[in-house]
Amino acid sequence: MKLTFLGAAGTVTGSKYLLETGDNKIMIDCGLFQGLKELRLLNWQQPEFDPFTVDTILLTHGHLDHTGYLPRLVKLGFKGKIFGTSPTLKVAEIILKDSAKIQEEEAERANKEGYSKHKPALAFYGVEDVAKTVNLFHIVEEDEWVEISTAIKARFLYNGHILGSTFIEIETKGKTLVFSGDIGRVNDLLLYPPKKPEEADVLLIESTYGGKIHAAEATILPLLETIVNETVASGGSIFVPSFAVERTQLLMMMLWELLINDRIPKIPMIMDSPMGANVLDLFHHSRKWHKLKPDECDDMCSHFTIVKNFRETLEIREDKKPKIVIAGSGMVTGGRILNYLEKRAGNINDTLLFAGYQAEGTRGRKILEGKKEIKIYGKIYPFKMQVKQLEGLSAHGDQNDLLNWLSKLETAPKQIFIIHGEKDQAEALQKKLLEQKQWTSQLPILNQVVEL
């Protein structure tokens, strides 16, 4: 057997791993590179393998950096089955449709206004490509073995990162391979604690926060309370770029809790994300995957205005009264948040509140690092907003969570690969594993091939 690291090796995004057993080719996750331009350009490269020869794709969860390359792979010839839990496939469908629509609209706008270097500007994939992809989806039940072929079976186990997310165990040729996906937190406010692997010959573990300890959960709500109250006192509004899956719903829950306990003023609270609205509906139909009770979900939603069309967005951004707006996308790479920033980036009384990881090279990361100008749809805007960050609100586990996730492995895996992390975070986790468990591990590089 051999394993090729096609993404999220030495970086956070683009999760793709090709497992070849001699008889089968299985891809675990099929994500899009995001962030730095040199990474994004990799999405457009012709793959070194033939997509038609890939038999099966297994998805850990629905985020774009784990599913966003699927329509491209289908466009290039993939015709096999795509397996994931029901919420994962629903989330993937919502995200991929939204992504395709945004790409088609941005390509059309770039061609109309002439700000792209590409003539013509093209969408990476379109709505039709997504429809063909969704036709290949096959639902698996959590914690039940699925026969991939006569010699390979796989199991998807709850790991608490987002709705439907899992880690994947594969058994083949007498070996157990574990792919962590993105590991959630032990004390998540919205999701249950991750299940843990009990044996592994080969282990791939994410390291997004491999060297970091999150702020205590008890400090997050008071910090959000302070940010809202200080911004409103100055006459400003709070704009929160948010991931549509889990993060938006978690933020809504926290703000709702503050509001009903009279800890923040009764100002309009707006959720402006078509994708987030679809995911909110999915939360109602996926009760066993999260902690929210039906009445809590209904009451929470009743306190928010859910934006239904773009005309409302344009009206809201012109309104100078204090408000809270949650809008996609989480790393400010696209979505409705850009429409607000076009108008509000120069307002010193407004606050841009980050509530999640900002990958290297993204617009969100640049703002966090102090950028005073931002480029939106080919135009430069001065940036003067207050910038705040809710530390510790990540859906990714920190170093302690990652070590806890490994606690049921009584013997060291023969091969450990640390993935899905920037170099410093991956190296910190590697060092900790050696110190605490005396486990040696490898930091694979992009396109590296290893024998298993």
Provide a quick synopsis of the model:
The chain is of the alpha/beta class and 452 residues long. The protein has helices at 37-40, 64-67, 70-75, 86-113, 127-134, 217-233, 247-260, 274-284, 294-302, 310-318, 337-344, 363-368, 399-405, 423-437, and strands at 2-5, 16-20, 25-30, 56-58, 81-85, 137-140, 146-149, 152-158, 166-172, 175-179, 202-206, 238-241, 269-272, 305-306, 324-327, 351-354, 373-376, 379-382, 386-389, 415-419, 449-451. The protein is built from 14 helices and 21 strands.
Tell me about this structure:
- There is one protein chain.
- The chain is 32% helix and 21% strand.
- The chain has a 7-stranded mixed β-sheet with strand order 6-5-4-3-2-1-21.
- It has 2 domains: 268 residues, Metallo-beta-lactamase, Chain A (4-Layer Sandwich), CATH 3.60.15.10; 173 residues, Rossmann fold.
| Class based on secondary structure composition and strand pairing | alpha/beta
For the record, give the distance between the C-alpha atoms at the N and C termini, rounded to a whole number.
5 Å
Overall geometry comes to globular
The CATH homologous superfamily of the largest domain is termed: Ribonuclease Z/Hydroxyacylglutathione hydrolase-like
Largest sheet at a glance? 7 strands, mixed
Helix content: 25-40%
Number-wise, the strands total 21
Note poorly predicted spans.
none
For the record, the CATH class of the largest domain is Alpha Beta
